[in-house]
Amino acid sequence: MTERKPPGVSFESWTDKQIRDAEARGEFAGLPGAGKPLPSEIEQPYDELWWVRRKMAREGLAVLPPTLALRKEAEDALAAALRAPTEQSARRIIEAINPKIREMMFRPPPGPPLGLKPYDVEEIAHHWRTTHNPPNP
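RE: above sequence
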């Protein structure tokens, strides 16, 4: 633990002294990446949020615009409805996503256009019935 900054000494000179003392003790020797160039960002335009994007990439996070997030949610809901164990559960899944799609359709898009319309519950239910209950020969 370093000592406290003495009164009357500027933070800059005190910090510089702390760094010089640590270098003299060899505390910066052998750090990962020592002697290697920093990752080049010269080819890319400056991005104020570069550190946020890197942190999110390291953590495996992604943030989609609301319309794209809803499009993904709708596609997942459709796939889940077609895999549902009962027609009633397939209907519930579709009836739950349709209000979200309608709401997004009737307000100004916060991102790229949604490009979806509500699913036809009867059409999905019919598709479910034909794939889960094939006609008997």
